[in-house]
Amino acid sequence: MEIAYLDTSALVKRYHKEEFSDVVDEIFERYSIAISELSIVEFTSALRRKVSEGMMRKKEMFRVLAKFQEDLADFIILKFDSNVISRAVEFVIEYGLKTLDSLQLSFAVKIKEYKPLFVSFDRKLVDCAKKEGFNVLEV
Does the reported pTM lie above 0.85? Predict the structure, then answer.
């Protein structure tokens, strides 16, 4: 099965219905899913922000987090290492990416040899992934 690398903007759409959730659901059906360790923290932060903004109840957040924790066993989880950090620094300098976006792109590079589909809903990050030679989801 082919691999799709999802950043957190894409991952959240799997667990909280919003625009393009249906697209992400299709990706989950057709691809093995790879995420970064960073996404685990970012995902939790994104859900907590939804609670703070009144878009989700705290009880729902805990239910979603429990489901997410169960699903982690099915994901390819890419780990931090010194290469991730050094590439992220290069992406900050080269593209002017924000810290977390540069880290997400750097994690994806770890599996670039498998030609993953790069999935993000951050336009600048997608453009940079294209420049790095990734096949990207176009929405």
Answer: yes
